[in-house]
Amino acid sequence: MAYNKWGTEDEAKELSPSIQKMLSKMLGATKPTPSSKPLLAASNATETDVATIGAIVGSQYIAVDDEQRRPRARGKSYLDLLDWRMDDEVTAPDLVVAPGTEEEILEILHYCSHERIAVVPFGGGTSVVGGITPLPGGHRAVISLDLVRFDALEDVDEVSGLATLGAGLSGPHAEMKLAEHGLQLGHFPQSFPYATIGGFAATRSSGQNSAGYGRFDEMVRELTVVTPVGIIRPGHSSPATAAGPSIKEIFLGSEGLFGVITRVRVRVHPIPEDKQYEAFTFASFDKGVAALRAVEQAGSGPTVLRLSDEIESSVNLTSTDKIGESDAEENKGCLAITMFEGTKEHADRAHAETRALMLANGGRSVGEEPARQWEKGRFGAPVLRDSLMDAGALCETLETATDWSNVPRLKKAVSAAIAKELVDESAALIMCHVSHVYATGCSLYFTIVAGASDDPQQTARKWRAAKSAATEAMTLHGGTITHHHAVGTDHLPWMDKEIEVLGIDILQAVKQRLDPAGILNPGKTFDRGTSMPHSLRND
Amino acid sequence: MAYNKWGTEDEAKELSPSIQKMLSKMLGATKPTPSSKPLLAASNATETDVATIGAIVGSQYIAVDDEQRRPRARGKSYLDLLDWRMDDEVTAPDLVVAPGTEEEILEILHYCSHERIAVVPFGGGTSVVGGITPLPGGHRAVISLDLVRFDALEDVDEVSGLATLGAGLSGPHAEMKLAEHGLQLGHFPQSFPYATIGGFAATRSSGQNSAGYGRFDEMVRELTVVTPVGIIRPGHSSPATAAGPSIKEIFLGSEGLFGVITRVRVRVHPIPEDKQYEAFTFASFDKGVAALRAVEQAGSGPTVLRLSDEIESSVNLTSTDKIGESDAEENKGCLAITMFEGTKEHADRAHAETRALMLANGGRSVGEEPARQWEKGRFGAPVLRDSLMDAGALCETLETATDWSNVPRLKKAVSAAIAKELVDESAALIMCHVSHVYATGCSLYFTIVAGASDDPQQTARKWRAAKSAATEAMTLHGGTITHHHAVGTDHLPWMDKEIEVLGIDILQAVKQRLDPAGILNPGKTFDRGTSMPHSLRND
User: Fold this and answer.
1) What family does this belong to (chains A, B) (predicted)?
2) Which of A435, A477, B208, B457 could be stapled to A413 by a disulfide with Cβ–Cβ 3.0 to 4.6 Å?
């Protein structure tokens, strides 16, 4: 993946004439956000660091050159990408290391604890919340610890539907290895092409097939984690247990604060024998939400269940090749996508029950084509962001979740908060969809396109204000501050509202026990508000 | 509930002639285990304790008399019940208190922290693992803190399917209050008639409808917990979140170690509009297990899915009124029970898909009657244990869970370990069933009936040896030490094998932060093996 955009150069997409027209109509005359290639801050690693860590991992697995440091300097949030379009020096890890075993990691952590060097674990580098920003937190240097060599499918239990995957395996690599056994993980977040198994666990990722296969944290049976005080394998040899508090649930979502995840044992399933698709439209978002709720609460079992609001449907975001072409029949009202997988019998039954509930709740079937189009283009949206930035637009996403009864209130509050900050001389497009459903509620995912200023610093300030207002609205109106993007550094300032001060105290106690020198991701340690969050770093 | 048996005097059942015949045939001549009424240890509470705590809660909510202390002195394990049949003095809480608000609990915990008094939270008193035994752990007295006054249905969100229940509500009371809103929790462990909402959460309980509605820990959205350092509400305003490690999962299964659970917000569902039943038989347990696995992995959605092994099926444990009558057609082979709930459409579809898979995997339908009988008698078994004890039999249950591929190995290992300790001059009946299924594995629940000695002390030693051997076998053969009975004091000696020493360190760190004086359930604090577990207390 290119260090300064989503995906590779090959994947770059030109904006279609229709979207260009839409942009200029909506946002007025825009100027491309300038491209730049800022310098990296010089490395603070000493010769002793390089020699010592090199001796642990082998000299071919350690680097201090800019080519290796640059792609590990930032994640893929809009603010991260903007950093590459400014002239300011960009902070970067001082050293990149790719250990091959847990024992090597343990040795590195010992050295770094002793030498006061910060360590930031690195998987796919797809964080959109500042999760891999190399903040030293008072330490004398920062190491980016790349899990790329943990790339094996370690074992497969086809009877139980379990497999152990190396933390450094990307989504596609994991699926390719499982496919050799006729198995599938079925975890398809938008970051799927680049993100890794370890990252999915560390961030409580959730994929687009979550209605069928659950969130990634629900798929995890066991983890291997290297902490500075030793190796632990939280999780169980059994599918469920009543043996006390869940140690595994402390490491899921821990984002490298307590240790380095190296292996993940996960639930897998046979590659579906059958796949069925159907799309529906609803007269309003609220009616569509009521239908999704009926389907989920009945337990009718779709694999994918999602709903776009009026604006997102009209922009036709379901097909990245057709964005802005809003004349299709399916783009009237709110578009809902359903997909069904499993045995033929199971897909038939789930489809029939779901279809009946969608129709009974006011849905109108528009056939399978929009659902197939959505599936085809579902990893394409992040690539478009780069093109939109080139065209002078601000483009970012954010997400939350809430109870079914609170969906209208939260959607309104978050949209209003964003609009208040972004709508000024130019308009802003604030689109929303539901893409993860639960018995008691659902996620809300917002995609925002607005005009950017000529000055990237000014645009960054504008976005930070909008993001801050949106997050504040979530905490005030019954939403979580993140449904599947994780905390990173961007969401740190709201963690006390999310888990209370006593919750932060508990995480601090665990942190102190496992990482007494505080070397792991020190810039994003949960504390009572004394951190320097990413979202404020230039203010 | 009577202090010295399960249920009330009214519920007592005489053993049927067929079971009496079976017992004498199997176990030889038995003498009734003697009945006794041992004295309670004198209370160590001081006048100041009574006056101070009485001033906090009101004098009508505090007691030091034996009538109040006795029912809170022991849980309902076989060893607990044996204690009441010996002549030795029985340890008991020194004081019983029933606070009415979180603020009162906080004041009590402050007083006890200062005065070095241990606190054991009390719900229904149904622990079968020594969970409520009043161990002082070096403190000068022990208080039993009864949650009985937290008995309200606090709020209901019918749209989202959420309700907040007081921790002291028993299973039936919670269901009655929800039924007024057309809702159901659907959590039916065998302890349902007496156990409480707070206890379900504190122990990670799992009910007989878990295939449909999940384990209790999965139903919990949010908890209110009073810790010695303050009140915390772990959980979220949203159905799922990626905002860091799960604080809620630290309190689920915490068994009163970190705080007192006072309220639980749970997922509820409409009272099912339809209910369908069907029973099947399989030629062998392994074939039956394969069928259950096929059903669960296909996602066909039964509400109840369970399977008895050959011995349990032949004893006809599915109907407590007919135990030992083994001539019925459905008792040849291994009996499986299925039940389906929901809308008529949903139950129809789940039933059809499940039925097809059961038949395709070698099952033979034996109609709905055995399933209906099972449902009718499903809370009756614990009552029979008292009658079996009266008749001179040792009777107890234990449980574990494992991966599907490991079921035969674990069942064999646990059965052999129990048999080795129990089968001597008399035979032992070791029965097993699967009652909780997951995509990757299932539970194994063992019911053991064997001959008891004339000397209860001798019988207790014999059972402790069998329980210890069974638990050791679980840790050696891929099982969890408890699937839904929790840790209590009985399972403490194996916690280091279950969650590793680092896992215990993590829980200790949390404990020290939340309960610095160590007053909460000090006798069962997870530590590195320095505790005095219940299972060894008379050795």
Assistant:
1) Belongs to the FAD-binding oxidoreductase/transferase type 4 family.
2) A477
